[in-house]
Amino acid sequence: MPAVKRFFPAFCFSVLTATCALVGTANADDSASEFSNQDLVKVDVITSEGQFTLQLRPDVAPDTVANFLEYVRSSYYDDTVFHRVIPGFMIQGGGFTEQLQRKKTRPPIRNEATGSLPNLRGTLAMARTNAPDSATAQFFVNLTDNDFLNPNSRSAGYAVFGKVVSGMGVIDAIANVQTGSRQGMNDVPLQAVTIESMSIVNSSDQ
User: Fold this and answer.
1) DSSP assignment, residue 40?
2) Whole-angstrom Cα distance, residue 61 to residue 57?
3) What is the rounded distance in angstroms from the CA atom of residue 121 to the CA atom of residue 164?
4) Each residue of 15-65: pLDDT tens digit?
5) Cα–Cα distance between 28 and 44 in angstroms, integer?
6) Do 121 and 145 contact (CB within 8 A), yes or no?
């Protein structure tokens, strides 16, 4: 499954075994200057835990944003779940139904990870396998500043393409749900956290 690995042996989202430490506490509701352009497209996400809003960065990650918006427009994410929740690290969703059935995706996209848009608390990034250009539909929201997910000499990194600009409290509530193992997957919420719908708020290409 699309994954994010930490730099431990045999460690990725699909076989996650280590405890992730809290290493940052930046407030994602304080919109950074790079997210201040009101013309950038926003997406409202309604979940079973409440609503949050994403602001996307097509100026930095055009292919990633276009891919994500195509999934949003097709209602692909409706009734999917956050299937991997790790406090102090990230929440991941966008690929499984409540019954943990994997949804069919379109072909993978190129990795647009860049150091100019790092994996900070509240940022939205694409999940992938160990292959850099393997992201499809699954995404994650960083719960802390995960510097090791940025591109470096050892890794192509994980592409950030947006940020939570309102409703970070909902993200933190999701991060605090009780998790366990289900159907061979770890860190799964024991009570499903469902994405009920996503909708584009404003976009020049609607």
Assistant:
1) S
2) 6
3) 9
4) 333 333 333 334 444 333 444 454 689 999 999 999 999 999 999 999 999
5) 16
6) yes
The whole domain housing 47 covers: 39-202
Distance CA 33, CA 35 (A): 5
User: Does residue 134 fall inside a structural domain?
Assistant: yes
Beta-carbon-side half-sphere exposure of residue 143 (alpha carbons within 13 Å)? 20
For residues 182 and 101, give the distance between their C-alpha atoms in angstroms, rounded to a whole number.
12
SS3 content of the chain, % helix, strand, coil (to 5): 15, 30, 55
What is the amino acid identity at position 188? V
Q: What is the per-residue pLDDT across 119-161, written as a single tens digit (0 to 9) for each?
A: 999 999 999 999 999 999 999 999 999 999 999 999 999 999 9
CA–CA dist 87, 172 (Å, integer): 8
User: 103: domain CATH number?
Assistant: 2.40.100.10
Q: What is the torsional sign of CA 32, 166, 103, 204?
A: negative
Per the domain annotation, does 11 fall within a domain? no
Tokens of 58: 């097509």
Give how many domains the chain has, as a whole number: 1
For tokens 């999917």, the residue is 80
Are 57 and 45 in contact, with CB atoms under 8 Å apart? Answer: no
**Residue 12 counted as domain residue:** no
- DSSP code of residue 186: E
